[in-house]
Amino acid sequence: MSVAEVITSPLMVDTITTIPHRQELTVTQARTFLRMSERHLNDLLDAGEIESRLVSNERMVLYDSLLLFEQERERVRTALDTIVQDSQEMGFYGD
């Protein structure tokens, strides 16, 4: 699929969002970005794995922090996929 097809795809148009770096997102926006439950995101925020701050009584999440978390999550996912593939090639898993 070419770039032009992605941009004009009716399925993709509503999912394209631009967010400036240093932007703060609400917990709802952040959980949508990360595709996870609000409870799980709050657990990560409480543990300090993703940076946030309170503004009045609303927790705001720094977009840059979400990007770093997502990059780390993808790095771990890739490493785990490699381990499974290597294990399969060594015969540790049956067909």
Oligomeric form: single chain
* Domain count: 1
- Low-confidence residue ranges: 1-12
**Overall geometric form:** elongated
The biggest sheet amounts to: 3 strands, antiparallel
Rg value: 18 Å
* Beginning-to-end CA distance, first to last residue: 33 Å
Instruction: Say what the CATH topology is.
Output: Multidrug-efflux Transporter Regulator, Chain: A, Domain 2
What percentage of residues falls in helices of 4 or more residues? 40-55%
Number of helices: 4
- Helix-strand topology string: HEHHEEH
Task: Write a structural description.
There is one protein chain. By secondary structure, this protein is α+β, with helices and mostly antiparallel strands. Strand 2 and strand 3 form a beta hairpin.
Identify the notable features of this structure and list them briefly:
3 strands; 3-stranded antiparallel sheet; elongated; 13% strand; 95 residues; disordered N terminus; single chain; alpha+beta; Multidrug-efflux Transporter Regulator, Chain: A, Domain 2
